[in-house]
Amino acid sequence: MQPVVSPSSRLGQSFRTSVRALLLSSILLGSSFSHVTAQTVGDDDNVATQQLNLPKDVTVFGKADPNVRRATAIVNGRIITGTDVDQRLALIITANGGKVAAEEKERLRVQVLRNLIDEALQIQEAAANDIKIDKAEIDQSYQRVAANFRQSPAQFDQYLRAQGSAPASIRRQIEGELAWSRLLRRNIQPFVNVSADEVKSVVDRMNAAKGSDEYRIGEIYLSATPENQAQIATNARNIIEQIKQGGSFAAYARQFSEASTAAVGGDLGWVRPAQLPDELAQAANEMQVGQLAGPIPVPGGMSVIYVMDKRKVLTADPRDALLSLKQLSVSFPAGTTKDQASAKAAAFAAQTKSIKGCGQANELGGKIGADVVDNDNVKVRDLPPQLQDILLGLQVGEATPPFGSINDGVRVLVVCGRDEAGGAAAPNPDQIMAQLEEERVNKRARIYLRDLRRDAVIDYN
User: Where is the PpiC domain (predicted)?
Assistant: First the structure.
């Protein structure tokens, strides 16, 4: 589906940072997720048994040790080394603040190897179709990634090495994504057609659905067969646990999702439940913003979904209002205890409670030694969820309660002006057509990659 990128905003030092790099994404998803009970895999395996003509009583000749994990492979002659796996794994661990249990690292290592195999197949297939990504193009993309981390390419090289990864690993991933994208544009996209009648039908349905809920969904899709369905479900649950412990959903989506939306952190954009497969629609209807659900069985595999945002179809959202804010902040000296910080915050709250308009904010800031920062055109939805409801309930001239931490100090926001959200835009036929095309390209791309896996010669070492 066509991704929708939310703009990021800065307020003072930072309330929320959203960095969408081509390769590494670290998105602050909040401190916790509410668990949503997922559907379970059905017990009826008769279909698979009949398709494969399997005997009812199975005797296994030989032994497969589940504790033996092979970390390297040769894919149609292309060698994937243990170092390749370690360097790519280091990117995931870095995105999770280095907090990954040893047992989970081993499970991630196996999944990373699968991803590297797919990446090799994609690059090989592109090359077989005379598609080769120039080094200059890879360098340009790499520079953009480094810039998103506010570093020069040379500095970013050092940063990656310090994390146990390497520039070559990211460059290889860049090459794989660009090559696969170009291959799909050449071999699949020209043969995907969306008629004007289909677009009109979607527009009509959206108009009919005005005022109903739509969600901004993130998805991690993992393909599965009847034979490995249980293992894939376990992998999905492990991913969910890592995200709940503070891991980046976008980072996991980039590394593990097998949908084309992996390149944008799994972002499906704004969708209504009716646009989703029934299994995902049922879960989305039961979820709140910030919740995870999964693993959810879907045709061809498993999905983990994350509700990033929610709004009403074709209805103005108060969170799209633009605010002019004034921020007063007071920092705590090094070594401040929790009790000392609480006392200082209480005094700060008493002082700021008397603010009557932004004109007094500057005067008060000078008296109490607070830093005062003006912030204009701040969209409410770009602020942390804890502040959104508070600010929506304030009138011009009113201040929020104090908030902050021992490390960041304490601060308040004063509303200096508000431009209410305008009417929601009518459906854009061009965007709808692009979204429908993307859905169909994505579906065919999965089949394409499945066929490449089936025909590959892979030697595990």
Answer: 212-309
Q: How many CA atoms lie within 13 A of 46 on its CB side?
A: 1
How is residue 409 annotated by DSSP?
E
pLDDT tens for 202-254 read 888 777 777 778 888 999 999 888 888 888 998 899 889 888 888 888 888 88
Q: How far is CA 101 from CA 37, 222, 239, in A?
A: 24, 22, 12
Q: How many domains does the chain have?
A: 2
Instruction: Sort strands 18-20 and 25-27 into parallel, antiparallel or unpaired.
Output: antiparallel
What's the per-residue H, E or C state across 84-101? HHHHHHHHHHHHCCCCCC
Q: Are residues 372 and 456 in the same domain?
A: no
- Residue 270 is given by DSSP the state E
The span from the CA of 108 to the CA of 91, in Å, is 11
The pLDDT tens digits of the residues spanning 377-397 come to: 888 888 887 788 888 888 888
Contact 122, 180 (CB under 8 A): yes
User: 180 and 224 share a domain?
Assistant: yes
Residue 47 included in any domain: no
Asked if 179 and 278 sit in the same domain, the reply is yes
Largest CA distance in the chain: 84
Structure tokens at 306: 């994350």
Token digits for 447?
Answer: 């089949």
Q: Are residues 363 and 246 in the same domain?
A: no
Q: Is residue 140 part of a domain?
A: yes
Residue 190's domain comprises: 19-41+74-195+209-315+444-460
Write out pLDDT tens, residues 153-167.
999 999 999 989 999
Domain membership of residue 392 (yes or no) is: yes
